[in-house]
Design a protein that fits this description.
about 300 residues; Dna Ligase, domain 1; alpha+beta
């Protein structure tokens, strides 16, 4: 098969690993810079152009779309789908999961365990918003933040009010969540491929930090997850419509709580912590499932 990888940087670990795994399985792999793809919308003949050529002969596409280019990246991926190319994750699922508020609303509707989360617009509602999530300490998150950026732990009610007021004054969209103290600054990243948790690691925040993101200096280690945690991760990925996902879970006194479902999870941390060939498992998924026009966004080709 000929497989495209949508990535801004071919030297990133996750991109390199997908190329290596694909080539090891005998496939032709090509990295295309998402922002250098441009599209032609013609009746019955959608096209993607790239550096002056037409990309029209791929069997599958692996989207590695950064959060900052979600809109444009989803548009390019949607064009691939309309051309009949099989995506490991569809554009509609990626945009759904990238909207933090919407994703939590969908998960809550389906009964998935979540930290109690609040969302408001008016400063007058801040006191009730804080009470809604159980008071301080609480976590304040920018809806557009990634990799732990824009996440604040407010340890007192006064601090929470000040931070929320500041964000609102900047017209920033935020949500507030209860602080799960018993998690101890750790979370679990479950890597889901095709409805199965294929790898899991525990991420522990460094001393003096509550964010466990590896980009924030956290450490990762292999962990054995419970059947309930496994089922929660699989269910969360299914609700988002993602075939490949990183589901971040907190261990709480009331069971596993989903923090986020990531549509472009990194491979470096999970492969190093578990020793598993996660990239190879993604390629196997493509081999077993890639068929023309096998997406929700139907094109006219094939």
């Amino acid at each position: 098969m000929k497989i495209a990888i949508m990535s801004r940087n071919k030297n990133l670990y996750s991109t390199r690993r997908m190329v290596e795994a694909g080539e090891a399985a005998g496939h032709e792999m090509r990295v295309v810079d998402t922002l250098r793809c441009y599209m032609s919308m013609k009746s019955n003949d959608p096209e993607i152009h790239y550096r002056g050529e037409i990309l029209d002969d791929f069997d599958a596409v692996i989207p590695r779309i950064g959060a900052s280019i979600t809109f444009y990246g989803a548009a390019v991926l949607r064009q691939f789908e309309m051309m009949g190319v099989f995506p490991i994750n569809e554009s509609v699922a990626i945009t759904r999961s990238r909207d933090k508020l919407r994703s939590l609303q969908l998960l809550a509707r389906k009964g998935v365990g979540l930290p109690v989360t609040g969302f408001a617009n008016a400063p007058d509602d801040i006191p009730d918003l804080i009470s809604m999530v159980g008071g301080a300490p609480l976590v304040i998150k920018l809806l557009e933040g990634t990799q732990g950026i824009g996440v604040v732990l407010a340890e007192t009610r006064k601090a929470a009010e000040s931070v929320i007021e500041a964000f609102m004054g900047l017209s920033a969209n935020i949500m507030v969540q209860e602080y799960i103290k018993e998690a101890g600054g750790a979370d679990i990243r479950c890597f889901v491929v095709d409805g199965k948790v294929v790898a899991a690691m525990k991420r522990q925040a460094k001393e003096g930090e509550f964010r466990s993101n590896l980009h924030r200096g956290g450490s990762a280690a292999l962990i054995r997850i419970t059947p309930e945690e496994r089922a929660t991760a699989v269910n969360a990925a299914r609700i988002m419509g993602l075939n490949v996902a990183g589901v971040d879970i907190l261990r709480s006194n009331r069971g596993p709580l989903v923090m986020e479902v990531n549509s472009s999870p990194g491979l470096e941390g999970i492969e190093a912590a578990t020793g598993k060939d996660v990239a190879g498992l993604i390629i196997k998924f493509i081999e077993q499932n890639a068929r023309p026009n096998r997406t929700a966004t139907k094109g006219t080709r094939g």
